[in-house]
Amino acid sequence: MASTAAPRTLSRAVRRKRWPQPQSHTSARHIATAPAVEYHEPEPVFPENSPAIPPASQRRQNLRNAQPFSDFLTDTFNRQHDYLRISLTERCNLRCLYCMPEEGIQLSPKKELLTTAEIYYLSALFVNQGVNKIRLTGGEPTVRKDIIPLMQQIGSLRRNGLKEIALTTNGISLHRKLDDMVEAGLTGVNISLDTLDPHQFVLLTRRQGFDAVMKSINRVQEMNKLGAGIKLKINCVAMRGLNDHQILPFIEMTRDQDVEVRFIEYMPFGGNKWSEKKMLPYTEMLDLIRTKYPDIAQLKGGKNDTSKTWQVPGHKGRVGFITSMTHNFCGTCNRLRITSDGNLKVCLHGNAEVSLRDMLRKDHDNEPMDEAAFEALRQIELDRRKQDGFRFDGEEGWISKERELLDIIGAAVKRKKAKHAGMGQLENMQNRPMILIGG
Q1: CB distance 412 to 72 below 8 Å
Q2: Which ranges carry the Radical SAM core domain (predicted)?
């Protein structure tokens, strides 16, 4: 259920003394509507200048008036989707074996990718329907030039009920942008790293960059010591015969570091030459870990956790296992995905997609929407509202377009299956390369 929460901020002393203030960027913009989780002819969702944060009394009143979770984001198995993952780009500065086909990918023309204004609009629409966590992915999201102002805009949605803004990154350039991201509202970082061996790093990613990744990990930990409060996780795709010998070194990493290392079962995607022989099951990984850490114990997890979390007694950090292939967690799935070209995917392992981009641009000659285009539509809507006796019923306008967009989203969510196909079927299904999905 969406709620109005006070913005997450760092203390002034921490911001002023501990790390530099961010440089000036495009001002954050936000939805002017009150949080709404059912469609009752809301105000048009348009970016505009942020008003003052509602007083505490108003926030309490909003909580009292909160409605049931949005039907648009609830599927036929009563799963409520309050977690949205948005891919910001198809581009990446690495070429990881399991993610990018060896021959590379055909990048979409820039015109086909979502603009910053469109990403923000969709973020606001989903937050107003009850999404409280947004994760930015790619490709590699940090290569997007406007990622900081985009995060600032998304961060403004905290007053509409957004609680978490997370990032999945390879960490190559994160350390250069992390301070500004924290100021924009970043709450969590997942860094992809499949080996602690600098030489093997080059083999697995087909690029240099190990030192830069470690610098980013260290920078997150430094900032956390100063009060940043960033949830840090390291994602390692475990592959038999390639990096399974790195599992124990990663466990040792959790001894003194407040980090969760998560081992991900190797999954089939377009072009990654998946083989069941390379897939290392969760149970085998756990057996390997127990040869050195026999007292490792499982921790209690949350309802929608994708990871089974364990900890070695006495270790500061934790260990997670994402078991998509052998022990799926479909029954509690609360995630939706938007690809960088604007398609909604309700399941990572499903090939069904629906275009939100085309709906957004339908009355804009199918051209990309920038802030000026949204502002023009907003002004048209406001002018129409000023007409005496204006009624929305049956009238054409942005509100009816917004309802149509929500209907498309709702229909896609309702078609979501109880669970994705099994291992033997997944390898034969058509699906995008991982880099074009966004994880």
Answers
A1: no
A2: 76-304
Fold exhibited by the domain 77-372+418-439: TIM Barrel (3.20.20)
- Rounded to whole angstroms, what are the CA distances from 339 to 71, 221, 240, 308? 22, 30, 29, 26
Question: Which two tokens mark 354?
Answer: 């629906």
Where are the chain's structural domains? 77-372+418-439
Confidence class of residue 438 from pLDDT cuts 50, 70 and 90?
A: low
pLDDT in tens, 35-45: 444 444 445 55
How would you classify the pairing of strands 188-192 and 231-238? parallel
Contacts of 401 by beta carbon, 8 Å cutoff, 6+ apart: 359, 362, 363
Q: State the Cα angle at 401 between 33 and 62, rounded to 5°.
A: 20
Least-confidence region, from 173-182, 214-223, 270-279, 289-298: 270-279
- Quick one: pLDDT band at residue 388, thresholds 50, 70, 90? low
Q: Give dist(CA 291, CA 439) in Å, integer.
A: 31
